[in-house]
Write a structure and sequence with these properties.
This protein has 181 residues and is mostly beta strands. The chain has one domain. Helices cover 9% and strands 50% of the residues. A hairpin with a 3-residue loop joins strand 3 (60-61) and strand 4 (65-70). The protein is globular. 33% of the residues are buried.
């Protein structure tokens, strides 16, 4: 009887243990690493916020990466004080390589003056920031606040944001600031 009550209590509490993690990436955008920057984001503040359930399971994974699909509204994008509405599901990919920085790549769709575009934020964190459990469920990184160094080359090392808007093209900018959860 006691074990039945303990099991019932544990099952009843399990949904309460689910929690959201909020990642906040903020800083100054720039320099322009590729593209013509038609939104004039270079030198502006940038904030990308992702709210993620720690109960999600990966939509794809390898031995060092896991990608999760996030619901509409899980991501907010603010460039220079302008909030861009997200228009669909988003993805969050964690990479925990054997050496080099751990990374988060957040990809979302946005609406810019009635045009649908995409924003891809790549956050370069200290090696070992995530434990291997990140490949099964989203988790916080440690230390909980980290300084971001801007990339100096599109697709290269460091943190960066790429935005693509039809008719306006693609632009990649570094971002220097901080990441927290």
């Amino acid at each position: 009887m006691l074990s039945f009550c303990a099991a019932a209590l544990l099952l009843g509490v399990s949904p309460l243990m689910a929690a959201n993690i909020t990642y906040t990436i903020s800083g100054t955008l720039g320099p322009v690493l590729a593209g013509s920057d038609p939104l004039g984001a270079n030198g502006e503040s940038g904030v990308l916020t992702a709210t993620v359930s720690n109960t999600l399971t990966p939509t794809s994974k390898t031995s060092t990466t896991a990608t999760y699909t996030l619901p509409v509204g899980a991501i907010t994008v603010n460039i220079g004080g302008t909030v861009y509405d997200t228009t669909g599901t988003s993805t969050l990919k964690y990479s925990i390589p054997a050496s080099g920085p751990d990374t988060m790549v957040i990809t979302t769709s946005v609406s810019v003056d009635g045009l649908n575009g995409t924003v891809v934020g790549t956050v370069s964190l200290a090696h070992g920031s995530f434990k291997s459990g990140i490949l099964k469920h989203p988790a916080k990184f440690a230390p909980a606040t980290q300084t971001l160094k801007a990339a100096t080359k599109a697709g290269g090392a460091g943190s960066q944001v790429k935005y693509t808007v039809p008719l306006l093209g693609s632009t990649t900018l570094g971002i220097a600031g901080s990441a927290s959860n």
